[in-house]
Amino acid sequence: MFSVESAGYRSITEEIGNRKIIDSLYNASAGYLNKKNCPPQPEKYKKKLTLENYLIDWASAQSKPIVLLLDEIDSLYDDVLVSILRQLRNGFQIRPKRFPSTVALVGLRDVREYKTKVRPNEASLGSGSPFNIKAKSILFAPFFHKSFCFFYRFFFDISCSTDALPKKTR
Question: How many domains does the structure of the chain reveal?
Answer without folding.
Answer: 2
